[in-house]
UniProtKB/TrEMBL annotation:
Protein name: Pseudaminic acid cytidylyltransferase
Pfam families the UniProt entry points to: CTP_transf_3 (PF02348)
NCBIfam families: PseF
Gene3D superfamilies: Spore Coat Polysaccharide Biosynthesis Protein SpsA, Chain A
Length: 228
């Protein structure tokens, strides 16, 4: 079975009720559910939540909610991997075998069905542990500066001061959208950011973290422009 798990706890702090807050006409989580369903690669699309309202919105959006997540996996310190491991254990105890599992974030309105398809293709083709979405840094990280305790600027990598931008190694960061993995890799807690992973590279204009209200406004502007 190929399973999509969308983690969506109820206690978001910086943006209240973020997972079901209306985003460009739909509850935020509905965009992730819709992309998963439209990708055609999943046997089941489920939402793992501790919140009954989120569960109802998820069902109305087309996902399944076969269980309510335990409270100990829904506090501010709960990591994603234990949540995924809990879902795997639930299905296996129910006698259902999972071959590939995709953790898809509830706050990923820019994710596209073809990206999810590409992730599964990469996972199988490369015979790796994980395949997840990344995007390029817009500026060379080797030119990064910081403000020191005296309020002055200093380079983090001063040895790169005279290196031409085109000669610097290209760098990427997690796009915060989806993470395909083999069940055994999830179960063993293997590092997602490690040599057992391959990238699915996305263009920068389709990647936006949504952690603050400012992020939210920017994301809606971007989304509306791309879907005009």
């Amino acid at each position: 079975m190929k399973l999509a798990v969308i983690p969506a706890r109820g206690g978001s702090k910086r943006i209240a009720r973020k997972n079901i807050k209306m985003f460009c006409g739909k509850p935020m989580i509905a965009w992730s559910i819709e992309a998963a369903l439209n990708s055609g690669v999943f046997d089941r699309v489920i939402v793992s939540t501790d919140d009954l309202e989120i569960a109802e919105v998820a069902r109305q959006s087309g996902a399944q909610v076969p269980f309510i997540r335990p409270a100990q996996l829904a506090d501010d310190h709960s990591g994603t991997v234990p949540v995924i491991q809990h879902a795997i254990e639930w299905f296996e105890q129910d006698g259902q075998q999972i071959d590939y599992l995709c953790c898809l974030y509830a706050t990923a309105p820019f994710v596209r069905p073809e990206d999810l398809q590409a992730g599964l293709d990469a996972l199988i083709r490369e015979q790796c542990d994980f395949a997840f979405a990344v995007t390029r840094y817009a500026f060379p990280v080797q030119r990064a500066v910081r403000i020191n305790t005296q309020g002055r600027i200093e380079m983090i990598y001063p040895e790169q001061f005279n290196t031409r931008s085109q000669d610097l190694q290209e760098t990427f960061h997690d796009a915060g959208q989806f993470y395909w993995g083999r069940t055994q890799a999830w179960r063993l807690g293997k590092p997602v950011f490690g040599p057992g992973s391959v990238p699915v590279v996305l263009p920068g204009h389709r990647v936006q973290d949504i952690d603050t209200l400012e992020d939210w406004v920017r994301a809606e502007w971007m989304f509306r422009e791309m879907n005009r």
